[in-house]
Amino acid sequence: MAPKKKPQKQSNKAASSSSSSSSSKPKPSSGPKLQISAENEDRLRRLLLNSGRTAPPAPAPIHSALSKNQKAKKLNTVYEKLSCEGFVDDQIELALSSLRDGATFETALDWLCLNLPSHELPVKFSTGASRFPTGGGSVGVILTSREDWNEPSDSSVELKQEEPEVLVKVKGKQDEDALRSDQSSQADWIRQYMRRQEEEELESWEDEVDGVGSSREASGPRAFDVIAKEYYSARSDAIKAKDKRDKKGQEQAGLAIRKLKQEIAALGISEATLESEFQREYAFEDATEKEIASPMPDTVHEAVDADSIQPLDEPVLDENPVENCGSEENQRKDLPSCSPGQEVVASDDNSEYLALDDMFSVDVPHYEASPHELLELQKKEKMRELRSEENLGKLEGIWKKGEAQKVPKAFLHQLCQRSGWDAPKFNKVTGEGRKISYTVSILRKASGRGKSRQAGGLVTLQLPHQDEVFESIEDAQNRVAAFALHKLFSDLPVHFAITEPYASLVLIWKQDELFCTVQSTEEDRRANFVDRLLEADSLSLNDSSSSISDAVPMVDTYVEEKDDLGLARSSHRAKRDSYIEATCLSLQQRQENKKKTRKYKDMLKTRTALPISEVKNDILHHLKERDVLVVCGETGSGKTTQAISVAQRVADERCESSPGSDDSLVGYQVRLESARSDKTRLLFCTTGILLRKLAGDKTLNDVTHIIVDEVHERSLLGDFLLIILKSLIEKQSCDNTSQRLKVILMSATVDANLFSNYFAHCPVITAQGRTHPVTTHFLEEIYESTRYLLAPDSPAALRSDSSIKDKLGSVNDRRGKKNLVLAGWGDDYLLSEDCLNPFYVSGNYNLYSDQTQQNLKRLNEDAIDYELLEELICHIDDTCNEGAILVFLPGVSEIHMLLDRLAASYRFRGPSADWLLPLHSSIASTEQKRVFLRPPEDVRKVIIATNIAETSITIDDVVYVIDSGKHKENRYNPQKVGAVEGDEELTPLGHHLAKLPVDVLIGKMLLYGGIFGCLSPILSIAAFLSYKSPFIYPKDEKQNVDRVKLALFSDNMDKSSELNNNDKQSDHLLMMVAYDKWVKILNERGMKAAQRFCESKFLSSSVMRMIRDMRVQYGTLLADIGLINLPKTGEFAGRKKENLDVWFSDQTQPFNMYSQQPEVVKAILCAGLYPNIAANDKGITETAVNSLTKQGNQTKSYSAWYDGRREVYIHPSSINSNFKAFQYPFLVFLEKVETNKVYLRDTTIVSPFSILLFGGSINVHHQSGSVTIDGWLKIAAPAQTAVLFKELRLTLHSILKDLIRKPEISGIVHNEVVKYMVHLLIEEGKPQHT
């Protein structure tokens, strides 16, 4: 037997008890609470159902390896569980029919929450909005934690849920169309009016998003529930007025009804829906009133005609529906509605009355009860039949009406005697706790013949519940006698003949058996449905397998098409070969003419002096024989290929103009800069540029040679390139193509055999280097030559962080020094004679001075001693011959720190300051070129670089190299960006990201910025995140910088985009605002004014200029993949950077529709930066809370943040470090930096909706009304809300998929799903009025 269905609502008493019990102990937060208004929920659900998106790939059928019986068992289990949750059979069967073999309990709940309106769902799964409309905003985000948040507070609502529903069918005239409408489910006709009115609804959303309908909240259309309530009231008034023959009352009610119908039509909802709601409520109220008035009625309510209650599968129409519907008696007793097509004929006196009554008749089918409701009604009908006096005929000769009722013992004795059985015997039974009860034993004689024969024998009966308490022995015996009457004489209405309370007990036992019978009927229906579903699946499989043969006749056609295509390709190849031959002859002639010039001959002498020239013939010979060659050249051999500088040098050696010019065959292409033309035949480029070219041209038909330098560095992109090149060469070998790609691998320090073996043991050529003698000086020698003293308070000196007690314990024998330190005189290091540097070995340094040994003892080898670097540079400048100094430091910030120290030095003022040169990958190419220039006499060139200069370039005049011995190392956690499926196939998002030569997080942000119409701010933010923050922090100026940051938010020059206080909780929006203000001043008042602005706001002008260039680059990349369009004519035409940047900032462009909406921009930030997210205790799961509590983080006097594994801290440079309270419990960040703590840099507070739309994997907990993201973030939301957001994600997935097929689509921002997601985000950001 299936378990009984759970009640959908607890009683007030139960709820109160539960609440009081739970309040005695603290519970973890259930997360921020989300709720969508009735209008938004209904619109969103209709939009998703009618979006027409391609269904996502169905999960692998979980039952595919199971037998038919096992599948049936699993489907039955799902059916049963859904039934227990309160879903009716029609709903369950629709869901399982749609999901079929892949159905699980969770997927079925998802389907039901998406496809059913809120008022048809059990209360705990619905948003509750359409049941209980509120006057607040469209979207509510509530941060107060309550465990009973989804329980409505209106007690009247709870009472309504507890009352039983009585549904009836009224006889009336129905044509065939009406009958078919009657048989369709309620969900079907609701979906019909949804589809009819979708367009008007979507237009209203657009108005709201664009601000057109900003006043609608005050004067706009009312909710359906409000109109339905007034319609019910007006219809009820009309019925009462009709019964009283009150014509004036009927007129007033009719006028109100007409207005309400007009109002509901304006909402796009049919009158049929309104009438259906009225009939449901009227039937419910009418039946409930009668039930209350007569708890155990002998007859059913007058309005219910027993003949009109039909089984579900056998609808029966009345033989004479017109007469019944038009008769005065039936019209008064039935529900106040006549069927469609009814004709009314009456005298003139009643014409006005009948005209008003006809107005109430609407052309809609009557309300159809669900199967579950019909079964409940059948139970009530059977109970009515049991109580009917028509059954008294079965007691003829035994008892008749008017005779005195008997006690069960006496009546049982009478019936046993009448049947020829022995007299019943009562036996005493002692139970637990000395409770006394009785059994009754009866010896029955066999009776009847054949199939009607009933066996005899002794039968002993006892009460089903043995723990009952009886008033007396007589009462105990009468109760068991009543039970015996019920079981042994079940065909007789014995309850009429016996006294109370035993008669009522018999009825209760019969009602329980009736429930079991009905439950068996439900089980039979369930089993039949599952069998039909599995049989349909089996048939569909057979159909699909039989259709395979249909594809066979297509083979001949395909072969013919392939032959035609081969001929076309052959013709194209012949033309291409002819063109290549002509071009080669032209270039060869040009080269021969160039060799005759004096400049070229001088260049050849210099080139011949390079060691690489000695193996020139060997290289050419091997390239003729093999496709791959490894050239192992030592430093200075002349093999380098550094893009910009070498491109210029090669152009000079070829006696040509600058790379990219019309008369030059040389070009280069690097990040943010390109110098190439149609004439370019030799291109120097980065690995990323070549990989991008391979993505568009997998065969590289227009490339003959590829030279890969620095292969020993084994970068991710470098190794990936070698894999692709190897595959391409192998494919060419198999195809026997005439044109073969040649690959040359080069490096100064390469493991030649490793690469030779990888490329099928290709030849290796080694070129001797042209090196100079190098003298190495180590740290202790530098200490000696400079006589440097490492000060105890230097950042490079080790300091003890131990307590005073520890310090005193180490100097017990040195009380003089201890007292000196405690008095505030002297140095801390004097407290301990022990070696502080764990790497210091005293025996290795006996030959050095005491000062050098003390320096080494106190040295913190993890720190950089900038003071020593400055002193060493000055020492070289004073004592050494001419030559440039090259200093290696780990990163950009370290480079600038040393540059600032040197620039402040007296030695490097004047002309010398111009030759303090930084060198790293993020500076502009013009700045990089300066390192190759020679300074004037008596000026020392100092280059401070990262390891870009270690192996990638050769600077001729560098004589002195200082290596700090430090380098930075990034460690990456596996990123979940949704680019790859479980089978390693690219997702639609992954396809787009593969086309963008940027970091995947930045690429994802750029894509969504274009799709969601906020491109300009995202271009700025993405550029800052890829490069660096524009803010500079002079020493002791942190407070002033913080003040300026807040002022930037407040002094917004563009009032239309003024930010509120919550929007100021974002470092990324701050960067956006800073750039917008800078570029506005730049365009209106010029560079000098922009420079002054930067100086006043602690901003870097060079960073701002770089950001402008990167914005143009990123925008152009999006145009290249077809996401946006570039201007072709007008003031923005051309590829000039300034023009394009203004174009990308144009607010009238579709891709900037919502660039003034901070909520949308922050949501796209969440999309790009996720999973770089942290949350405080209001936004994490109970499991995560318990885990962090075990780590000792249970008591905090501040708002702590967690990254899912540990406590983290907002970096002091973040604007959010100054806030104590936050709008939401979630933030995204750029990176984590670990020093003494784990800090989050560049943070932005993001909303729960942003995380639901763009965060990690969603797990909907339907029963508890909560959602977890990636297993540790928690948001409380009704199941339907969570499922709708889950479906929104899948729809966005489909939009990206469409964008792959149609990359030319530029108006994607006009997609209705995208617009509605924007609408939700904007509504969420509005202040809530609770």
Automatic annotation (TrEMBL):
One molecular function GO term is: helicase activity
Kindly give the InterPro entries that the UniProt entry links to this protein.
DEAD-box_helicase_OB_fold (IPR011709), HA2_WH (IPR048333), Helicase-assoc_dom (IPR007502), Helicase_ATP-bd (IPR014001), Helicase_C-like (IPR001650), P-loop_NTPase (IPR027417), RNA_hel_CTD (IPR059023), UBA_DHX29-like (IPR056890)
Q: Which domain of life is it from?
A: Eukaryota
Q: Which SMART domains match?
A: DEXDc, HA2
Asked if the keyword Magnesium belongs to this entry, the reply reads no
Q: Does the UniProt entry include the keyword Transmembrane?
A: no
Q: Where is the composition biased (Low complexity)?
A: 9-33
Which one Pfam family would you cite for this protein? Answer: UBA_DHX29
List the EC numbers from the record.
3.6.4.13
Name the residue ranges with Acidic residues bias.
200-210
- What region holds the Helicase C-terminal domain? 868-1065
Instruction: Identify the PROSITE patterns for this entry.
Output: HELICASE_ATP_BIND_1 (PS51192), HELICASE_CTER (PS51194)
Q: Spell out the Gene3D superfamilies in the cross-references.
A: P-loop containing nucleotide triphosphate hydrolases
Residue ranges for the region (Disordered) are 1-46, 200-219, 320-341
Q: CDD domains, alphabetically?
A: DEXHc_RHA-like, SF2_C_RHA
Catalytic activity from the UniProt record: ATP + H2O = ADP + phosphate + H(+)
Using the record's annotation, list all stretches that form the Helicase ATP-binding domain: 620-768
Q: Which UniProt keywords apply?
A: ATP-binding, Helicase, Hydrolase, Nucleotide-binding
| PANTHER family, per database record | ATP-DEPENDENT RNA HELICASE, DEXH-BOX ATP-DEPENDENT RNA HELICASE DEXH4, CHLOROPLASTIC-RELATED
Q: Name the family.
A: Belongs to the DExH box helicase family.
What name does UniProt use for this protein? Answer: RNA helicase
Native source organism of the sequence? Brassica campestris (Field mustard)
